[in-house]
Amino acid sequence: MIISDRIKEMRLKRGFTLKQLAEAIGKTEATVQRYESGNIKNLKSDIISQIADVLHCAPAYLMGWSDVEQSDMDVKLDPRVKKIYVYGTVKAGPNGLAYEEVEPDPEFFDYEYIVGDYFALRVKGDSMIGDGINENDIVLVRETCEIAFNDQIGIAIVNGEEGTIKHIIKTENSLILRASNPNVKSREFIGEEMNKVRIVGVVVEMKRKFGRK
Q1: Which position has the higher pLDDT, 205 or 73?
Q2: Is residue 86 predicted with pLDDT exceeding 70?
Q3: What's the pLDDT band for 75 if we cut at 50, 70, 90?
């Protein structure tokens, strides 16, 4: 089917994984895989429009009605940037990370260095103001279960609940989540308590929009 081939073509061209496209349109990875294999017939027009918006192409191109990827009305996407959706929270889900409170408008980040799985989070609270990271700032996070060096800023989930942004310090017998706001107490997990903490990513970039309430 033309539509299944073109969804896959544009997904790969824009640098999206199956997981990233699925999250952006609110579907499961398995569902998107079925779209690309042609196992779902009569795909609804609203789903096609969603996919076209995320992949920044014309719905008519996905449908096979046109060989032009973008209509004249579309804003050209700079090939050096990548569209990543912003989430309000990240938790430990049964099948991996569970993202919640997805924002309707994505952010754009430099495509050239984005390799692997990334997600963006809106910061809540003021525990990292010592690093210039304020509430409502957006951080780009590379998904990983390890830190590259002690005191690296990352996202950790404690007891499967909402993720927190902190400096992460690991030793053989302890793990510290260090705030950079002197008024916020850091948390230390020793011995078996370390199993309560799951590192899910490291922060690689921050954005701020002024005037947001």
Answers
A1: 205
A2: yes
A3: very low
Identify the pLDDT of residue 80.
Answer: 59
pLDDT in tens, 22-66: 888 888 899 999 999 887 767 777 788 888 888 878 888 888 877
Question: Max Cα separation, the chain?
Answer: 61
Sign of CA dihedral 81, 165, 97, 200: positive
Gap between the Cα atoms of 201 and 203, Å rounded: 7
Distance separating alpha carbons of residues 188 and 131, to the nearest angstrom? 20
Q: How far apart are CA 118 and CA 108, in angstroms?
A: 12
Of 199, 177, 196, nearest in space to 188 by CA: 177
CA distance 19 to 38: 18
For the chain, the average pLDDT equals 82
Class at the top of the CATH hierarchy for domain 82-207: mainly beta
d(CA 44, CA 38): 14
Among 153, 144, 156, which Cα is nearest to 198's?
Answer: 156
Q: Where are the domains of the chain?
A: 2-77, 82-207
Domains 2-77 and 82-207 equal at CATH topology level: no
Contact in structure between 90 and 163 (CB atoms under 8 Å): yes
CB of 137 closer than 8 Å to CB of 207: yes
pLDDT tops 80 at residue 108: no
**Domain boundaries 2-77, corresponding CATH code:** 1.10.260.40
